[in-house]
Amino acid sequence: MRKSIFISGGASGIGAASMALFLERGWAVCVYDLKISEEFARQYGCYGEKLLLIEGDTRDAEGVRNAADTAAERFGGLGSVFACAGVHSSDTILDVSEEALRRMIDINIMGTYHTLQACLPHIIAGGGGSVVINASDQSLVGKPHSFAYGLTKGALGQICKGMALDLASKGVRVNAICPGTIRTPMVDAIFARCSAQGLGSEEELWAEEEALFPLGRVGRPEEVAKLVYFLAGEDSSFTTGSLYSIDGGLTAG
Ligand SMILES: NC(=O)c1ccc[n+]([C@@H]2O[C@H](COP(=O)([O-])OP(=O)(O)OC[C@H]3O[C@@H](n4cnc5c(N)ncnc54)[C@H](O)[C@@H]3O)[C@@H](O)[C@H]2O)c1
Fold first, then answer.
1. What distance in Å separates the CA atoms of residue 32 and residue 98, rounded to the nearest whole number?
2. Which ranges of the chain have pLDDT less than 70?
3. Which pLDDT score is estimated for 92?
4. Which of 53, 65, 184 to mutate to test the pocket of ligand 1 (most atoms within 8 A of CB)?
5. Contact 80, 131 (CB under 8 A)
6. Shortest CA distance to 219 belongs to which of 118, 122, 137?
7. Closest Cα partner for 178 from 164, 158, 207?
8. What domains appear along the chain, each with residue ranges and CATH number?
9. What is the pTM of this model?
10. Half-sphere exposure in the Cβ direction for 201 (13 Å, CA)
11. Alpha-carbon dihedral of residues 29, 35, 40, 41, nearest 10 degrees?
12. Residue 245, SS3?
């Protein structure tokens, strides 16, 4: 299979750590993200032709399709896609507005749909490859104050299984990762908001979070990147339709 991958949301957190690992191991990577800072582009500029950075929104079907076409042309095809872009919200059924719920569905579900639909023709044309979807521990268990986010991540788990069945005969494997809390800018922002609401200092909130995990800590983006790398490449050749927990034991009990 081709060692080239399209990563949505690859300019921060789990997506960026994955991008760095794939580049380090010689893959060509296209990052498609809402915002790509000049500093980020400078930091990884040394990868030259092996790295394509494209700003855009996964809600824009045409934008993602153009980006996937550009990446396939530059890299001579696409072997894998990591649909990673996503956002978080805190709400319950009692207080979530229809507008807020639709935004979550648009980004986390429709954005993933656009990304996969844009990349799959290239992966299939190259004889097959691998799809990795960034789901969540909330694809497996419920969490309080997470109505809209949980709904979207549950859907991604199901999308993974159904797609795996539809695409197996075309040589495409589809798996999802289900991370527990990983220390990224997304979660830092959530705790900063909670702290501003008077729920405790950010340090206290992180300590409470870490205590929830059997391994006694939250995860690092680099740890998740290694699982993404395994699933995207040929080392995972007999896996498809699976949801992989990477959560320090959180959902084991
Ligand atoms: N961090 C965690 O604890 C955790 C746990 C489980 C799952 N996840 C999932 O991992 C993914 C990445 O999260 P992260 O924690 O690395 O967050 P992050 O905020 O650090 O990175 C997300 C990236 O996605 C980009 N993005 C967001 N919406 C986009 C859109 N519509 N189009 C293009 N790019 C967009 C952002 O600009 C950002 O660069 C998300 O899908 C998230 O739900 C994260």
1. 28
2. none
3. 98
4. 184
5. yes
6. 137
7. 158
8. 4-180+221-236 (3.40.50.720), 183-218 (no CATH)
9. 0.98
10. 3
11. 60
12. strand
| Cβ(104)–Cβ(149) below 8 Å | yes
**What is the phi/psi pair of residue 80, to 5°?**
-150, 160
Ligand 1 atom with minimal separation from the 181 CA: 3
Ligand 1 mean position, distance from CA 160 (Å): 18
**pLDDT at residue number 166:** 98
Query: How far apart are alpha carbons 54 and 115 in whole angstroms?
Result: 13
Question: CA 60 to CA 77: how far, in whole Å?
Answer: 22
Question: DSSP readout, 106-144?
Answer: IIIIIHHHHHHHHHHHHHHHTT-EEEEEE--GGGTS--T
Structure confidence at residue 236 (pLDDT):
98
- At residue 253, the pLDDT reads 87
Bridge partners of 46?
none
The three-point CA angle 102-158-173 to 5° equals 120
Contact residues of ligand 1, CB 6 A cut-off: 8-9, 11-15, 33-35, 57-59, 84-87, 107, 111, 134, 136, 179, 181-182, 184-187
Work out the burial of residue 5: count CB atoms within 10 Å of its CB; fewer than 13 is exposed, 13-18 middle, 19 or more buried.
buried
69, two tokens = 């076409």
How far is the C-alpha of 60 from the C-alpha of 204, rounded, in Å?
39
3-state SS, residue 143: coil
Which of 201, 246, 239 minimizes the C-alpha distance to 221?
246
For residue 74, what pLDDT is reported?
Answer: 98
Helix (H) or strand (E) holding 73: helix 61-75
**Is 86 in a helix, a strand, or coil?**
coil
